Amino acid sequence: MEGGGGEGSVDSPNLTVQVKFSGRSIPVSLSPDSTIKDLKSLLQPLTNVLPRGQKLIFKGKVLVDTITLKSSEITNGSKLMLMASQGLHQGDGPITKEASTPSNLRRTTVDANRTLNNKMEAPPVVDKSRSERWKLTGVIALSGCQLKVIPEEVWSCGSSVRVLDISRNSIHEVPARIGSLSSMQKLFLNSNGMLDESISWEGVMSLKSLTVLSLTQNCLTSLPAALGALVSLTQLHVANNKLTSLPVEIGLLTHLEILKANNNRISSVPSSIGNCNSLVEVDLSSNLLVELPETFGGLLNLKALHLSNNGLKSLPSTVFKMCAQLSTLDLHGTEITIDLLRQFEGWEDFDERRRLKHQKQLDFRVGSSAGFDEGADKN
């Protein structure tokens, strides 16, 4: 961690301060020789507020980054107040008292268990004519139908199914039978409140023709290694979940073109991401990232990279040099500065591509800025 103030020393034992933020008190332990900047760095993962968006107040005074706790007369048990600047946060926003209470998640778990255990509940009735139409078109569209289980008629369609959309329902179980839809190419499971145990990945991984998998707006905390078996995937949408990481096996998805994993709690990206050399667009915005693997430079087809609202301080050194098609880069809400970017090899070529892209969009915009305005601070 930058500053290294959290370790303390033999001569200066750590002290614990209480930081009041958004209706809760956060205990933080660090050396009295640590700076206020060190304290802000420790508070970043605990609050989702970037250091530059933090204002610490002690005894009515705003504390300056460069001074130490000792010189600020902060002692063991001292109480500080943290105020956050709007917009300067990582992940899915500042962690408030309400957000830290998992009552909603517990309620979702109870509802899911109730659904899974209620074996006597009759499946929704689907008229025969619609079932025949599904077989004829290969498209099953059941989005927003207030379903709690996948209708039996779906399974009867077998290998004729190409697209299954059961988004915006209350389906808490995708059984192993999903594998019987062996020709399926697109699967949409968005907004069902699904938990990790809701999906039979054994069934999903047998869908060798699957090109689009969408799991946005659920309650998933992890993706299994089995994801790597879906070698035909071109699009993976897992935004707005509670994911803390991406599996190493994502590197096996060499045909993947679009990865949208924004609004999660991902703190690191596996280096195997560099093997996904077909990637064109990657959205990792609003997560808990502090760095990206150098292997991002291997994404030679990458055109758009969205990284806003993360704790990033730099980018992989080869991202501009190697990603020769990159023209969209969103860094809003990070700590990356424009001066840092200008030091990267290949920056000039990237900036030219970005300008050309903006020039083509002039007909659809009121005005255009000649300077870089993708979120990097000028100082």
Characterize the structure shown.
This protein is of the alpha/beta class and 379 residues long. 18% of the residues lie in helices and 14% in strands. The chain contains eight helices and 14 strands. The strands form two sheets. It has a nine-stranded parallel sheet. The protein has a five-stranded mixed sheet with strand order 2-1-5-3-4, covered by helices on one side. One of its GO terms (cellular component) is cytoplasm. Keywords: Leucine-rich repeat, Repeat. Residues 15-86 form the Ubiquitin-like domain. This is Ubiquitin domain.
Task: Please give a handful of descriptors for the protein shown.
8 helices; alpha/beta; Leucine-rich repeat, LRR (right-handed beta-alpha superhelix); 9-stranded parallel beta sheet
Write a compact overview of the structure shown.
It holds the Pfam family ubiquitin. With 379 residues, the protein is α/β, with parallel strands linked by helices. It has 2 domains: 70 residues, Phosphatidylinositol 3-kinase Catalytic Subunit, Chain A, domain 1 (Ubiquitin-like (UB roll), Roll); 237 residues, Alpha-Beta Horseshoe (Leucine-rich repeat, LRR (right-handed beta-alpha superhelix)), CATH 3.80.10.
